[in-house]
Amino acid sequence: MIEFPKPKVEQFFRTYSITDFALSGDEERLIFSSNLNGKVNLWAMDLPNLFPYLFAHRDESVSFIKFDPKNRYVLAGFDKDGDENHQIYALPAEGGLPEPLVTGNPEEKYYYAHLSEDGNRLYYMTSEGNPSFLNAYVKNLEDQSDTLLHEGSESTTYLESVSENEQAFVYTQSLANTYVRAFVKHGDETHYLTPDPEKVHVAFESAFVNDSSIYFLTDYDSDFVYLAHFDLEDKLFSEVLKIENESLQNLKWNKEQNMLYFSTEKGVTDLLYRFDPDSTKLEQVSTPVDIIDKIQITKSGNLYLLGTSATKPHNIFQWMGDSEWKPLTDNRVLGLSEEDLVDPEEVSFQSYDGLEIEALLFKPKPENDNGHAIFWPHGGPQHAERKQFRSMFQCFLNRGYTIFAPNFRGSTGYGSSFVKLVEQDWGEGPRLDCLAAINWLFDNKLADPEKLFLIGGSYGGYMALLLHGRHPEYFKAVVDIFGVSNLFTFVESVPPHWKPIMERWLGDPVRDKDRFTKDSPVTYLDGMEKPMLVIQGAKDPRVVKEESDQIVAKLKEKGREVEYLVLDDEGHGFSKKENEIKVYSAMLDFLEKHQV
Ligand SMILES: CC(=O)N[C@@H](C)C(=O)N[C@@H](C)C(=O)O
What we know:
Elements (H helix, E strand, L loop, with lengths): L8 H5 L4 E6 L5 E6 L6 E6 L6 E4 L5 E6 L5 E6 L8 E6 L6 E4 L7 E6 L5 E6 L8 E6 L5 E6 L4 E7 L5 E9 L2 E8 L2 E4 L10 E8 L2 E6 L7 E6 L4 E6 L5 E8 L4 E8 L2 E8 L4 E5 L5 E7 L5 E7 L2 E8 L6 E2 L17 E6 L5 E7 L10 E3 L15 H8 L3 E5 L9 H5 L8 H15 L8 E6 L1 H12 L6 E5 L5 H7 L5 H7 L7 H6 L13 E6 L7 H13 L4 E6 L9 H17 L3
Parallel strand pairs: 31-32, 31-33, 33-34, 34-35, 35-36
Antiparallel strand pairs: 1-2, 2-3, 3-4, 5-6, 6-7, 7-8, 9-10, 10-11, 11-12, 13-14, 14-15, 15-16, 17-18, 18-19, 19-20, 21-22, 22-23, 23-24, 25-26, 26-27, 27-28, 29-30, 30-32
The structure holds the ligand CC(=O)N[C@@H](C)C(=O)N[C@@H](C)C(=O)O.
The site of the ligand CC(=O)N[C@@H](C)C(=O)N[C@@H](C)C(=O)O has 10 residues, from loops.
Protein name: Acyl-peptide hydrolase
Organism: Planomicrobium soli
GO molecular function: aminopeptidase activity; serine-type endopeptidase activity
């Protein structure tokens, strides 16, 4: 019979992403954002028909999708080449070309916050006039007038939820990723949702169940995020539901069923629950994926979910009660089944100070194993490597590389005190966790000390640079994807709305000069003796191009072997298929070249 070759690299990259979705109120139309035609656009399906058609064409990343409750229009947010300056556009009900609705200076941001029940008033936040703290406005869509609702102060302020009568508003103020306080404004009155706003905690994802009753998520006086309640009439805060060692997220209220839905983050996976606040009955809902990105509950009580697993690319599923989850999309890896892909093992090891660290270990199939391993510190740093699909990982695995991804201190999913361990300590504790991880790999014969590569993106790129500079003996070659190279320049160049969190997150460049010097990769240029590939999006607003430019220039001055790949139309990630293919192919070639 006809013989076919082994899967080619191209097949792994011909997997498309689905980044967001929304269902119309009547559940007749599903719109989702995807790079199905190579760049991100909006696609739609008129259910139960599952063949997608192009709904809106803009070729740019999408920040939100929202249906008018009366199906007269659709709203969506787009940025430009990954610059994260999201602006709000409107589309006719039948789709077409997005028309600017809340846009202005291309350097400004306009974030969607809420749409009134009648679809006539749009609430949004903007950096215009208040770049660090943001202002909240309401736009009357009938006469297009804008009214200022709230001027952000003290720290970055987001409008989170609006009561049904549009008289009460919940805002969050971010002082750090681990310090977000929420307050409700009602007329002239303002009340924090938690008892002591000066205590470090997070409070977010609020939902009004009536005009004075607010459910929200918080870790106030707790290591994990739980469900809490604030009563606007008697100004009372109460704890409602805690789940041991799980942090709640994605809170949604379904008025018709009187039911709260949420997912929880537990280490490297997510779980889904529904909770009846009256009977306090909690029910776990099994899901077809390990990672839940978004849920939407419709008036009829049907549940829609966007999610992924290590061997399943992003797909959208429908759950109509007791029956099975029905996949609405069939996003796959070209010509490969789940069995051809690798599910990671969850392992743990003790770090230098006894702290338990969880990690994902991806082993290539024995017939593919090339004896080399890749060490992958994740980005964030207050994020985690979880069981999500990464075409890059599956491609490396198919080429025979083992991949090890530790959730070093500072990672999410293990409680708030673990997340805080990276604050004002970017380069010591997490770096020593990475070293402990590498030694554990060697001790357990999971990697060969002569055959280890180092790859990381963003904070992971920073860690790759730092490990390279300080411990070059461990690695054959290093790939840095938009990594921070110099903490002094990074702290000055982050987007204005990040400025309020920099002190707690990273520290102060004057007060902490010695630590910034010690923890900046540029301090260790002498050590960076192994071949390097540096990849950078020119429009990256988070880790700006100057971070990569300076390390590349300094290494070149020293005559080191550095390849530099700049993507002119990308930001902090690769949203365009051809760019993704270019980047991952360059990485594969680089690794192959340095195997010997
Ligand atoms: C403010 C914050 O935590 N931002 C992160 C999501 C982020 O983008 N961090 C960069 C540095 C990264 O590592 O991805």
